[in-house]
Amino acid sequence: MKTNKPDDAEALIQKLPSDIGIHRNPRKGTLDAPEKILEGLEFDEDIFVSEVFPDEFDLEETQRRIEENTGELIEYGRPLISLGGDHSVSFPVLKALKKEFPDLKLVWLDAHLDLKERVGDHVSHDVVVRELLNHGFSEEDIVFLGITEIDHDEEMFLETRDFTIYRAGEVPQALEKEQFKGPVYLSVDIDVIRESEAPGTGYRDGRLGLDQVLEVIESVNPDHADLVEVAPSLDRKNTTVENSQKILKQLIEHV
Question: pTM value?
């Protein structure tokens, strides 16, 4: 159930509606995702829900608001789940958490690395991990799971880096091999799931099944997490929203 007091909550959710971080793809639709995912959803746990309203003309201002709100929420010492929005919302959340928890590890469950080079002043949804390297994270802090697509500029960047990357077909081996010891942040991009189970997203490149994503959450058992890139307007038969609700409930159970 929802509570009005974060002190009484077992977990915190911050709604981060945003699509301004998507600039290379006209297939937007993530702005209303947090509202749609939470609509009619019942929780067994006591949950406090807050929202950061975006400045849809200023990505930097939106990210500043998110970082500030994240900093305030983590003072309560509860698990935090951020509900996007496009993947750019993860950047200020992770910046704030890394400042508070210098040993924080990141598990990036995504069909994409998001290691593209920044264009201008915008930390868009596809450059997040690369930018985090300038904000306290090292290659050793990050594990990529479920990757299917690596762009040419990312391949060039990887030539001088030593990241831990598991392709979609290697996820079972990753869960056996990796020790996900806290503090750990799990970022779940819905596009890691195959199109038949998550059609409502901008890049339908995923190869994992929903059951595999739920297994990852259970295995990683994160301290904090996010769920991003759900685009209800691109969905079919509400499939993506319903599966996102299952992911959110699994996250709340395991954070």
Answer: 0.96
